[in-house]
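Worked example

This section walks through a single chain of length 1116. The input is the sequence exactly as stored; nothing has been trimmed or padded.
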Amino acid sequence: MEGRSAFTLSEEEEHALEQQELGEHTLLNDRGNGSHRPTQTVFNLDMDYSDDDALLDWEQYAGMNRVRCCGLDCTRAARCLRPPQWWYTYPKRQRRCILGALICMAALFVVLVALVAAAALRGGSPLTGRQGDEATGGGSGTPGPTGGTAATGELELCGWQQWRLPGSVVPSHYELELQVPLNSSGAPQDRPLVQGSVGINVTVLQATRCVVLHASDMDIGEVRLGGPEGQPGTFTKREAEEQLVLRFDSALPQPTAEIWITFSYQLRAGLSGFYRSTYNLSNGTQRSLATTQFEANAARTAFPCFDEPAFKAVFSTEVIAPVGLQVLSNTAPRAVHHHAHNEEEGTATWHFQPTPPMSTYLVCIVVGEFVSKSRAVAGAGVGGSVNVSVWGTPERVGHLQYALDVAAAILPAYEKALGVPFPLEKMDLIAIPDFSAGAMENWGLITYRETALLVSNDSSLLDRRYVALVVAHEMAHQWFGNLVTMDYWGELWLNEGFASYFEYVGATAAEPEDEFFSTFYTSYLPNALYFDSKQSSHPLSMDPAVMNSTDKIESVFDAVMYDKGAAVLRMLRAWANRDNQELPLPTYETIPGATPAQDPFLAGLHTYLQGHAYNTSRAADLWASVGGALGPEIPADMQQWTYQQGYPLLNVSMDGQGRVWLHQAPFGLAGTQPCSPDTAWWIPVSYTTGAAPNRLQWTELRGCQSSEPLLKLNPKRPTWIKLNAGQLGFYRVQYSEDGWRLLAEAARSNATASGGGPLLAGTDLAGLLEDSFSLAEAGQGNITRFLNLLLALPSRAPQEYEPWAAALPFIYTMVRLLPDCYSTWQRWVGDVLLRSYLAQPAANASGAANDPSARLFSFNPSKVSVPSSQQTMGYRLLRPAILRAAGLFPDRTSGASNMQVEALTLMGQLEAEADVGGAEPAGPNAVDADIRSAVYQAAARSNDWEIYHQLQEMYRAATDPAEKERLLLALGYAPGADRLNSTLDFALTPDVRAQDVRTVIVNAAANGGHNAPGVVWRWLNANAEVLFAKLGGDDEASVRVSQAAERVASLFADRAKAAEVDAFFAKHKTKQSDPGYAARAKESIEANARWVEMHGSTACAWVDVQQAAAAAAGGR
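Given that input, the structure is written out below as tokens.
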């Protein structure tokens, strides 16, 4: 009905009105003949007539009639639907035009909605990147419906053409059964046939007969809907996308269904998926084991699954394996049965408890002969106790205790720091002989390379620290990555950045005396800052739409996701605690035990973990949670740090009145760019001054430049100011020439700050060295700033590790980059920079120059020469670094450094102690494990074939994983093309594990001498296919080869090599399609070439002056 009345009429009134209307019509019709008798009305159809010509609009008043519905009076309700009175101010023709237009617009809107729904089903939301999934954000671990009609959705699922999976069918529970007929003593080439079945309970979000999931490199047997006895189906393999499209005759029941698939494949030969690893016992007997490594996309090679992080589900796993072998999985076994078929086959069936909801890449199964050490950690976990076990192959039982002690200390420390208990009843850590990565955080069953978990009497301080950090890293993932998982791989930093930061928290809790945070800067920042200064870098959070291949996903396991992620988190935590009186810096980094109640940063993480437990998250979810504790401005402040690649250069300037101002600009390897207010970073700035060197102060920069001065100095007698004090921020700092000069003087000063310690802290000097070289590399300053800062190193205390750790990589780099004077550079480093440092006596010692046992830095095996008071953690870290450098730079007078002579003497003693057959030394290695790498490397650099072969034989004979690694890497220090090629060829033999080959290649290129990059590059081009096969021939192999090629090519300073890089990757494009490796290598080549052009002659002139001055001072 149309129209509405301003009043209500009774039945009688309505009847009277009807009669009145009838009478008026009668009068009109009768007028003209005087008759009161009704006459027939005649209308002239040819008349140009319109309703708009009528005096009354009957549509307006038609609504006054009574309306009845099913015998009831509905007049009042019907009148509520009448148009407003103003509607009738328009003529009827216009009203009809308006109605027609509205109907057309409504129809167009319906069509647009249908098109958007179809696009979402096919291509995914532009915000999420998921094909047909718009509901994975905001912490939802279950992909949402695709939208669209059932018929259209079914058609597109059956003919799915996208790389990402649709979100129309979502897994909730897997019943996985695997039969692994592993012969642990079989030959390495034996690859048993794994047979399995998987039942997947799914949630069906739209009517469909088809299901799209992942499966790769396997034979598919049966496909059924409804379990093993259900409706049979068919399947189509999409090999390039590694997908399996299942089709059934009838639609999947809604809202839930079960699909069941049988499959088989050979145990893989590479280092990913479900693969075989081999090892030798001390008697030479070979053994095998089977293990998994699924991150990022390899679960699909072990069983059909929805192999994307957001598809979380519960896993109930059964493994049938030979009797006598240990089987481990994510959860504890609920039973081990010997059924009738087991008795016949000599197998046992292991039934494991259901897991929490988790992503497929975290599933883990290990089968083999293992021994373990265990400890119940009381008070941990949701049940009040967690059983922690460390596993290894049978002869590693004596190497498990350290990792167990560390893990048992870290678990409760993380629970306390995060306020979230560990959800499983057990945690296993297991060492695998062949393992591509350092470790993998599988929930409840963490797998490690042997060197990352095992500690023996042959382990050095660096070995132990490495084990503690890697154990802590993977255990941090149990919260960051497992409990809460990034929605997709473009935000991998939500997993790896957190684990990389919290590994220092965990290791500090386990070994507080090791001062882990004191080395955080030089461990992470230089690599991350260099990587992120390239145009080929990427933001922390990447658009998921670009993550459209396994190659691309594997390529982002890089310094941005790990190191930058950790650095940004540390920067934010430092800012959050800048005024924390209970836990001031650096207390919360040096003394473990901070809780969310004490630390606002931890309070934000507690909210984040609780709010997204067993689900996925995005960076926006993180910042919203942290902002609740730190302040509502945090999400906006972290916008650029999260979604914008690169980082700022902070410029410090002083005006004529002594006022200090701050400016920022985007920094890159090719230089800086103008600052835009829309893209400027929020920068938390820590600083110290010469007036108060021990006082850490804070400010912040919002926008391109500061709105008020940071402080005011005396322009006639200015003191130094050091920004990014403590190197807590992720940015570089540029000073004026006077500013750099004042800082260099403070670094060289022997004066001490009030309260003790140097005027300029060691970490701050490390930051100045890093910034000065990198700014020169980018054309933002002269290389002499860096060189002048090097002169401060001999005056620094022998307990200061960080300045040397920052300087030495650049000292080695300049050997490659200096075009004409690299020999002079080597002599100056050995003669001036290192010699005076090496001559330092131990406490209460005299005659150090002639008595190696009395020197602080010596290869002398006796430890009694250095009092325990001087053996601080800084000294113990610095000692092997200094001795390694001293062994690599020749002495000016004899042509061989004293350290090389000492190293060769020790190698002779080791050879004399060895058995006649060239086996290991009869007793323990007499060389201190802390300096053993430096001894081996210095000896290898001596250019002696006998020493080279001795190192090779020692490698073959060694059984300790860390010792084997030391010896293998030392071979890469032997100079000359013949030895380099011998080392590289040796890496392809069965003596060297596939996991170690990439490291051998990169190490030889970087440390084999001035011409080593060219030798290694030619070898790599000639042997790429053999190398690919050695590494397993799979996706993981392609990543390792590509990484090796990038690292080697990045050492060149000849622009002509860029074309060779393109040619290499073009030749092997079928194995590696991601362009990032080549792009990064070419950027490094260009930066190196520019460095030589801008700074090569300046550096050579500087070192000539220094060498002449040293000669004059020495009377030569």
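What to look for: The longest strand covers residues 193-204.
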